[in-house]
């Protein structure tokens, strides 16, 4: 089966790196479910991408919304072959580990960790049954324990470290089934989150997630963390 027969779901697909991931996946011939909290925002992106892109209303912080969106997607397209957990928030840039904002911690984990976990729970069992799947968790070098040299952005860092752990667990749990699970660091990229002075454009930021989302049949790359298509220390 070529990419043209595959369906991808991208969370946070209406702007930033997620919108560019959607565009690049559609360019490679996949049908792309552009998932966004506001359906109108997703519709706008789909209008720009073309008929391969389909809007989907999805708030990853709500278990009900995840269940409804996945039901709708599977009902309309039969299967989700590729899941890109891209939706993310960064709520405590001005904080440090010793200056914790507990509310921000809960809200960040709800989206960055639980959102991805809920989607995986709703989508990966179908991939395992189908014997094919690609899961990409969009993480950050800020979540790398090996590179953890600062207490800044504490809840964001912890959420991405936990997302990395989820990546390892899922990869181990589905090993040998044809489902590959990896984590991608897009690098510091211009977006709502990255701000205007980041050195990378969305095209560059989306490259590694898209590469992992389209690993060819028979590729054994799983349980890894990558930046610029190269391994990054956990
Ligand atoms: N930019 C960087 O420098 C950088 C570096 C490393 C990692 N990352 C990661 O890359 C990913 C994309 O970030 P970005 O830079 O493109 O940031 P962004 O421009 O701020 O976009 C964030 C996206 O996440 C979505 N989102 C947030 N909460 C959501 C929820 N509860 N349900 C569904 N969607 C939700 C947003 O949707 P709405 O439009 O509905 O708000 C938006 O589409 C994130 O996981 C981020 O942590 C970014």
From TrEMBL:
<dbReference type="InterPro" id="IPR036291">
    <property type="entry name" value="NAD(P)-bd_dom_sf"/>
</dbReference>
<dbReference type="InterPro" id="IPR002347">
    <property type="entry name" value="SDR_fam"/>
</dbReference>
<feature type="region of interest" description="Disordered">
    <location>
        <begin position="187"/>
        <end position="206"/>
    </location>
</feature>
<keyword id="KW-0560">Oxidoreductase</keyword>
<protein>
    <submittedName>
        <fullName>Short-chain dehydrogenase</fullName>
    </submittedName>
</protein>
<dbReference type="Pfam" id="PF00106">
    <property type="entry name" value="adh_short"/>
</dbReference>
<comment type="similarity">
    <text>Belongs to the short-chain dehydrogenases/reductases (SDR) family.</text>
</comment>
<dbReference type="GO" id="GO:0016616">
    <property type="term" value="F:oxidoreductase activity, acting on the CH-OH group of donors, NAD or NADP as acceptor"/>
</dbReference>
């Amino acid at each position: 089966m070529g990419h043209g027969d595959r369906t991808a779901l991208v969370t946070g697909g209406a702007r930033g790196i997620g919108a560019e991931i959607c565009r690049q996946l559609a360019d490679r011939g996949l049908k792309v479910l552009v998932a966004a909290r506001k359906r109108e925002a997703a519709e706008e992106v789909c209008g720009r991408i073309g008929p391969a892109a389909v809007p989907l209303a999805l708030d990853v912080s709500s278990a009900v919304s995840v269940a409804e969106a996945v039901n709708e997607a599977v009902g309309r397209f039969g299967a989700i072959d590729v899941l890109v957990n891209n939706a993310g928030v960064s709520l405590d840039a001005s904080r440090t580990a010793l200056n914790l904002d507990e509310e921000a911690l809960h809200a960040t984990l709800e989206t960055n960790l639980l959102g991805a976990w809920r989607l995986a729970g709703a989508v990966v069992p179908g991939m395992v049954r189908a014997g094919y799947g690609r899961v990409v968790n969009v993480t950050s070098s800020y979540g790398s324990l090996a590179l953890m040299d600062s207490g800044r952005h504490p809840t964001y860092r912890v959420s991405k470290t936990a997302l990395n752990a989820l990546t390892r667990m899922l990869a181990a749990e589905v090993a040998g089934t044809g489902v590959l699970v990896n984590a991608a660091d897009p690098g510091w990229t211009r977006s709502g989150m990255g701000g205007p002075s980041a050195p990378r454009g969305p095209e560059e930021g989306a490259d590694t997630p898209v590469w992992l989302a389209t690993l060819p049949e028979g590729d054994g790359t799983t349980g890894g963390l990558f930046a610029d298509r190269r391994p990054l220390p956990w």
